[in-house]
Design brief:
Helices cover 14% and strands 23% of the residues. It is an alpha/beta fold.
């Protein structure tokens, strides 16, 4: 009886050894068609890096997420549009946001999304963004310059109202300058309106008291009282160039 038990144990051990012998260190991961192991690893690394040092995180669109790290860098990533926010429901009204990095794949900057981010000094906008919403950067009082990439075709009213911009580079794809886009940007020094723009809407640069030069394209058809009021009072401090 003991011999039979011993033989049975040996048989079980032999089966187990054979089973482990055909599994080389564990099961192989199978990836969906078009999604390689390298792509998966890169995606996982991106997620880990975004989460590293994060002090807060959330969503700001159906497929768009954000993380805020301990250095005040707000990183927004994902695909598709950011959410458009309503007055009094501002998502990022934080004094500790210093830098905003929007990753490629995000296609819009929502209404009121960065309003009152008064410590923001830098924002990176990818070419995947096609629109900037109403009052998106209103009262960003530490933001000195911004570059709008060529993919942007529309900018909402009051987008940079009361900001501290000294310079702004506009997208070459714009066809109009929105109403009050840069009203009360008292540090703005010069602006070049890109070729293709046909209209500058109401008071787009009103009360830009440091503005000394506006370069206009030959495509411009309509100007709706965009000059500061004191220009009409005989104080010509513009050097306007046609291109």
């Amino acid at each position: 009886m003991k011999t039979n038990n011993r033989s049975y144990l040996f048989a079980v051990l032999a089966v187990l050894l054979m089973a482990f012998a055909v599994i080389p260190g564990g099961a192989e991961t199978v990836y969906a068609e078009g999604f390689s192991k390298d792509a998966a690893s890169q995606e996982e690394e991106t997620v880990r890096e975004a989460a590293k040092g994060a002090v807060d995180s959330g969503t700001c669109g159906e497929n768009v997420t954000w993380t805020l790290d301990e250095n005040g860098t707000l990183t927004i990533s994902g695909t598709g549009e950011m959410e458009d926010y309503k007055q009094s429901s501002y998502p990022f009204m934080y004094d500790d946001i210093k830098t905003v990095i929007i990753k490629n794949g995000v296609t819009s900057i929502g209404d009121w999304v960065f309003i009152y981010c008064r410590s923001m000094t830098r924002v990176e906008i990818p070419e995947s963004v096609t629109s900037i919403g109403w009052q998106a950067f209103e009262d960003c009082s530490s933001l000195k310059s911004i570059e709008i990439p060529k993919g942007v075709t529309s900018i909402g009213n009051y987008a940079f109202y009361l900001s501290s911009l000294e310079s702004i580079t506009l997208s070459e794809e714009l066809t109009s300058i929105a109403s009050h886009m840069c009203t009360n940007c008292s540090s703005l020094k010069n602006v070049t309106i890109p070729k293709g723009v046909t209209i500058i809407d109401w008071q787009a640069f009103e009360n830009c008291s440091s503005l000394t030069k506006i370069t206009l394209p030959d495509t411009l058809v309509v100007i709706r009282n965009y000059l500061p009021r004191r220009y009409t009072h005989g104080r010509n401090f513009y050097a306007v160039c046609l291109i």
